[in-house]
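Module 6 notes. Inverse folding takes a fixed backbone as the condition and produces residue identities as the prediction. Think of it as a translation problem where the source language is geometry and the target language is the twenty amino acids. Below is one complete input and output pair. Work through it position by position during the lab.
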């Protein structure tokens, strides 16, 4: 008959170690295994919501609009989003944008990503040529006498000129005309706009950048 010998101390330690490690593994599968794929999925949704918003802000030529208080994301109501925008010290038009997304409810796990918003050439030209000293943009209150330059007001002004002079200008042609020959069509405002009739006063490149910029503003 075969005799079994007892375990040596080394074998005992190894055996206990093996039991300890494997039970740890089993426990972590029990504890984390069930929720792990889900948590991973949540993180992916959170990250892509934040990334999507930041991308949207970066390609927009209009300055970012901060929304510093968490609000539910449209289309993903279990997640909240907030947007902070801080002008840089070296250039008031450039802004550090921070998008934070938290969720899904009731979890408040947050993902934050940052980017640097650099204004388009048109936005820079708008400041450099001093257009902003007379004109307001988009939903801003216009400076008395100077028309608001969002796409909606420009379209309305273009329609008015077309019907008055039986022309068929497009919005972009109307913008060009308004900058090159501001006195060609007037709304009867007492304020007179500075004109930029030729490439000595404004290169075509700046005119195009300004046109694209103005048309990007609602
Ligand atoms: C001195 C003030 C002043 C400055 C500077 C100025 N504008 Fe104007 N702008 C006006 C006024 C006033 C009108 C309206 C003219 C009229 O009554 O027809 C106008 C009209 C326009 C229009 C037509 C808008 C519409 O609704 O008919 C555009 C486009 C425009 N400006 C763009 C610019 C751009 C771009 C710059 C900078 C390169 C600029 N303006 C600089 C005063 C100014």
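Target side of the pair, the amino acids:
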């Amino acid at each position: 008959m075969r005799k079994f010998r007892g375990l040596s101390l080394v074998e005992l330690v190894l055996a206990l170690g093996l039991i300890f490690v494997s039970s740890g593994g089993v426990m972590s599968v029990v504890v984390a295994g069930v929720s792990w794929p889900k948590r991973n999925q949540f993180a992916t949704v959170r990250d892509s919501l934040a990334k999507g918003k930041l991308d949207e802000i970066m390609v927009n030529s209009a300055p970012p609009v901060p929304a510093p208080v968490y609000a539910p994301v449209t289309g993903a109501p279990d997640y909240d989003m907030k947007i902070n925008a801080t002008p840089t010290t070296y250039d008031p038009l450039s802004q550090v944008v921070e998008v934070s997304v938290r969720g899904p409810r009731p979890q408040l796990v947050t993902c934050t990503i940052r980017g640097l918003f650099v204004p388009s050439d048109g936005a820079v030209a708008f400041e450099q040529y001093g257009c902003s000293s007379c004109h307001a943009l988009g939903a801003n209150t216009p400076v008395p006498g100077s028309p608001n330059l969002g796409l909606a007001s420009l379209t309305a002004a273009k329609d008015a000129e077309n019907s008055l002079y039986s022309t068929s200008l497009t919005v972009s042609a109307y913008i060009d005309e308004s900058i090159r020959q501001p006195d060609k069509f007037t709304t009867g405002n007492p304020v007179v706009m500075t004109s930029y009739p030729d490439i000595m006063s404004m290169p075509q490149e700046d005119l195009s950048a300004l046109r694209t910029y103005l048309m990007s503003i609602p």
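Reference fact for the lab report: The radius of gyration is 31 Å.
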